[in-house]
User: Fold this.
Amino acid sequence: MPQAPHPADESRRQATLDQLGLLDTGADPVFDELVRRAASTFDTPMAAISLVDHDRQWFKARVGLDVEQTPRSCAICAYCILGEGPLVIQDTKQDPGVADNPLVTGPPHLRFYAGAPIRWTDGQHIGSLCTLDTRPRNPSAKQIERLIELAQEVSYAIDHHFLRLCAKQWQDLGLNGDALAA
Assistant:
């Protein structure tokens, strides 16, 4: 399987991802709930919020997956961030782009992938919200629409996380909103 190409603005995309301060952070109940809702929408055993980093995809939240990250070289989510809309692969073994992916040919033996890009406010696709199964699926238009909505909710949760991070940095500097307004 060829590795997904990097987006044309990869350095800017990566800078955005680094600036957000999400990589390698602990569990967050908001993100965990969004992943559970994605799995429930599709009735799949696996779902994740995948952030596509330099050489890996790191899972901010996940259900049904035992690993915290995988190499970017085998990340189907690395393909998802290249498009504007969702990426749906009904049967990975029938898709020549991913049929030989180590996550398809070996554990967890993925047969279905549906992901929607997670967009930061500057337009960068930093990762995806995906749902996965070990059997092929044919999702409905309503399920895909809901996946897109949930990916937008992930973006809102990232906004909230980033605002909290900025507020903490301001506080660490001895600043508050009043000082910044002056």
In short: Helices lie at 10-20, 29-42, 77-80, 102-105, 141-172, 177-181. Residues 1 and 100 are 5 Å apart (CA to CA). The chain has six helices and six strands.
